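User: My notes are a mess, but here's the protein and fe (ii) ion's SMILES. Can you give me a structure?
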Amino acid sequence: MIKFVSVDRVKPGVTLAKDIYGVDTFTGKIVMLKVGQKLTMAHITKLMGLDLQGIYINEPPVASELLTGDTKTELFHLIDELEATGTPAFLSLYKEKIEDASSILNDFVDTVLRRDDLRLSMESLDFHENLRYAHTVSTAVISIVIAKELGMSKPDMLDLTLAALIHDIGDKKLPDGLLDKPARLTEDEYEIVKTHTTHGYGILGHEDFSAISEPVKSGVLSHHERFDGSGYPNGLGGEEIPLFARIIAVADVYSALTADRPYRSAYQVSEAIEYIMGNADRQFDAIVVAAFLKIISPYPIGSCVRLSSGERAVVSKQNPENPLRPVVFLMDDPTAVIDLYHDKCFYNVVVTDLLDE
Ligand SMILES: [Fe+2]
Ligand SMILES: [Fe+2]
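Assistant: No problem, the inputs look usable. Here's the predicted complex:
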């Protein structure tokens, strides 16, 4: 995606998304770099000498950085193979694959831990390979970044990643075609779908999986429990619900809402975030929701947006309490800075669109 960033935040290797021209304050020369130019440290040093508010760069999606090359391919195969399991004949293969997974997960969690101030943009969660893979991986990515925000230990993060990757493994036991039904489920069908939680727990209860920890298994069992006790399969409430399950619940719902379903199109990102925010302390643990709001970034810093007032603006700062209401400056008047969350005069102004500029 195209991002507007101040020059001191630019790292070598990024490419320019727009031409740059200006006057070097020291030499008085015109300096011009063309769109597509890959910036070196020398370029960046030079740009520092220009009186620029910022520059437009192409930024690769976060998750493609998290899941590049081998990791992504390995993870894809792993999920594919996990998806193929569910019958006893596959269980030993499954066990082997879980062992293979530990090194992949280690890399994955290390990458997340290494990154400061990690926020997930919408593009970073866009996995085109297939719906199933997209849901599984985006649930895992969101879960793990929430866990980091909550200060979870690395061993626990590894377990949580595994639980998130296999949270819907029980779907394998559902009748063929039920999940792809191109219409809303009947009440009876919904009751059958609910059994994927206990089926998942049952699959993982096989002796071949004794190496998988109990928190992983109970995370899979309880990912549809809800904080107010309205979930399934056991109607647990509050902290009776294991922490892994409380985290996966938020990630799972966000991932599901923002994807197309056979019977409805995807929610807007802002609608999905509002849904999660509106259900803090109801369906979801408010502490987990607060962490989610800090790491999700529908309007990343530097992105161009349209406001309900009709003006175009650039996001200059996030408000961690509400990612839908960032601080922006107007494109036509960069001195006009508006805090859409704290500034009472602008309570009626909202971001309506992310612009592709
Ligand atoms: Fe599920
Ligand atoms: Fe799910």
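The chain has three domains: 2-58, 62-297, 304-355.
User: Great, I'll file this with my notes.
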